[in-house]
Amino acid sequence: KAGNKALKYHEFLEAMVMLAFHRANPRYGEAGHEREASSPLPGCLELLLQRSLLKKAKHGGMASIKEGIAHGADVQVIIWSHKSALLKEFNAATRTQVLSKDAFLQSLSTRALIGDANVQPLSSVRGASLPAVHLSLSGLDA
After folding, report:
1. Cα–Cα dist 33/17, whole Å
2. From what superkingdom does this record's organism come (predicted)?
């Protein structure tokens, strides 16, 4: 089953490094080109960032909105006159539910994420079978 179809930050950075290296060294890894890269890292990454990625990056409009709010006297008067109501709404929206350690471990246990399990790994080679692996995950591992 595929993931959530979204890149995490570290996955995005990894993709950028791989893309930069491959674009600068398209024949790397082929016969006769196994050892030396014509454009090694970090130079090829810097080139990709300067010529493509940063040049075409979109900047959100939130900075201009924030500046308008910060320097607009009429906006500041409205904000300060409704400060208590705004603060109450902000606290309600940003309040996080805290999960106790016991409740967290119970949740992991009911979903069979901790405990003993035998798993059968899948081989990347068709027809090959790998031995079963015993996993023992405790609450300390979580």
Report:
1. 19
2. Eukaryota
Give the end-to-end CA distance of the chain in Å, rounded to a whole number.
Answer: 23
Q: For residue range 78-97, what is the model confidence (pLDDT) as tens digits?
A: 888 999 999 998 888 878 77
CA distance 105 to 113: 9
* Secondary structure of residue 67 in the 3-state scheme: helix
Nearest-5° angle of CA 85, CA 86, CA 90?
Answer: 120
What percent of the chain lies above the pLDDT cut of 90? Answer: 11
Q: Is 45 exposed, middle or buried (0-12, 13-18, 19+ CB in 10 A)?
A: buried
Beta bridge partners of 119: 133
Pairing of strands 115-119, 133-137: antiparallel
State how far the Cα of 88 lies from the Cα of 116, in Å rounded to an integer. Answer: 46
